[in-house]
């Protein structure tokens, strides 16, 4: 029986305006990994994590209530809660076209060229801080200037950004890489950093 790998990835992305006004690169940190094995096979591979057989022989992922908190869980007290602000009449508003389906499908350069899937619906994430707008849609991200909305980077494939294998290499036969989804981005004013998280499902390359 083959097993899949479910990983939670956190990337810290410092965006500090320097002489060029362009963002610097980030660092990858793997927070936790859970192995999913054959149905009905108990497998404790992390603190507070458990695999059990469901009522219809389906695999079911549960998190134990007791014991230590798993490394992939972020307590609610640690999630940024920005203050609400009213939009005053006549206040200037910034508007720009976000990442489109075509943008994320054709994101990627070099060995990541033409390695993205066509994905729907669009899982969208957005954060603003320090003069930058960081947007992620499905498996791509882009940085813009917060004052004008002008793009400061190309649309970057998230598999390329996190230094993962390409989603799919369209060879004969095709080679499949990690399936990624559900991006989330946060701006943390205390550290002056953007945080990017991504869900990663391991697959059999063949």
Can you summarize this structure?
Helices cover 4% and strands 36% of the residues. By secondary structure, the chain is mostly beta strands. A hairpin with a 5-residue loop joins β9 (168-169) and β10 (175-176).
SSE layout:
Elements: E1 4-14, E2 27-36, E3 49-53, E4 59-63, H1 101-105, E5 124-129, E6 132-137, E7 140-145, E8 156-157, H2 158-161, E9 168-169, E10 175-176, E11 179-188, E12 193-201
Antiparallel strand pairs: 1-2, 1-12, 3-4, 5-6, 6-7, 7-8, 9-10, 11-12
Please tell me about this protein's structure:
The chain is mostly beta strands. It contains two helices and twelve strands. The chain has a four-stranded antiparallel β-sheet with strand order 2-1-12-11, with no helix packed on it. A hairpin with a 5-residue loop joins strand 3 (49-53) and strand 4 (59-63). The model is unreliable at 1-9, 17-54 and 56-66 (pLDDT under 50).
Average pLDDT number: 74
Could you give a short account of the major beta sheet?
4 strands, antiparallel
* Percent range of helical residues: under 10%
Task: Kindly provide the radius of gyration, computed on alpha-carbon positions and rounded to a whole number of angstroms.
Answer: 19 Å
Strand content: 35-45%
Strand order of the largest sheet: 2-1-12-11
Shape: globular
Distance between the termini: 15 Å
Discrete helix count: 2
* Element pattern in H and E: EEEEHEEEEHEEEE
Give a count of the beta strands, DSSP E runs of length 2 or more.
Answer: 12
